[in-house]
Amino acid sequence: MKKLILTIWAVSCVMAAVNAQDGSDYKRGIGVRIGGGYYDVAAASFKTFITKPGAIELNLGFRPYSAIYSSYSQFHLSFSASYQHHFPIGNVEGLRWFIGGGATVYNTFSSNEDLRGFGLGLFPTGGADYKFNNIPLNVSADFRPTIAIIRPDYYGYSYLSTYSRFYAGNVGVSARYTF
Predict the structure, then answer these.
(1) CA distance 39 to 18
(2) Degrees to nearest 5, angle at CA 178 with 176 and 179
(3) What angle do CA 159, 61, 156 make, to 5 degrees?
C-alpha cells in the first residue's frame, strides 16, 4: 500500500511540474550539450534569457583523448559563454533560430609537453532552439566555428603548435530541463 501511495504522489508531482511549465516560452534551462569541439565533447549547459529575445548560454565541458597509436593521453577542460539573440521561425510555436557569439577558455592536460597548456577562442554562433509545449524540455542545435586567440604551444613557440588557429567542426546538440 505504501508503494502505491508513493507512486501516486510521485506521478502527481511530475504532472504538476509538467502543467506548471505550460507554453513554449521558458526563462532558463539546465542540461547537457554534446558537441564536436576539440576542447569539449560533452558539457553541462545552462541557458537563461536576460530579455525576451536575448539569452546567455554557459557550458562547462571536457574532452578526454588518447590515441591508440601513441603513448600519450590528454584531457581538455573548458568553459564557454555565449550571447544568443532569438527570432521566431514561421508559425511554429516554440521553434526559434538564433545568432550570436561568445568565447571559450580551456586548458589541456597532457602527458605530452607539446600539447599541454591554456587556450582562448572566440566564436560566432547560430542555430535553432525548440521548447516543447507540454513538457519542461528544450532542445537545440548549434554551430560554433572557433578562432583560437591563445592556444597551447610547443615550448613557447606557438607556430609549432598542433592546434589550428581556426576550427570549423564545432557543431553541437543540447537538451535542457526548463524552469
Answers:
(1) 35
(2) 150
(3) 20
Residue whose C-alpha is closest to residue 80's, from 33, 126, 30: 33
The total number of structural domains that make up the chain: 1
pLDDT digit string (tens) for 82-121?
999 999 998 999 999 999 999 999 998 888 777 788 999 9
Side chain identity, residue 35: G
Distance from C-alpha of 72 to C-alpha of 109, rounded to nearest angstrom: 11
Grid cell listed for 31: 542540461
Q: Tell me what percent of the chain is helix, strand and coil, each rounded to the nearest 5.
A: 10, 55, 30
Encode pLDDT of 114-155 as tens digits: 778 899 999 999 999 999 999 999 999 999 999 989 887 655
The HSE-up count of residue 165 (CA atoms within 13 Å, CB side) is 4
Q: Which residue segment(s) compose the domain that 91 sits in?
A: 2-178
- For CA atoms 6, 11, 176, 76, the dihedral sign is positive
21: CATH:
2.40.160.20
Given a contact cutoff of 8 angstroms between Cβ atoms, the answer to whether 158 and 134 are in contact is no
Q: CB-based contacts of 109: which residues, under 8 Å, 6+ apart?
A: 74, 75, 76, 77, 116
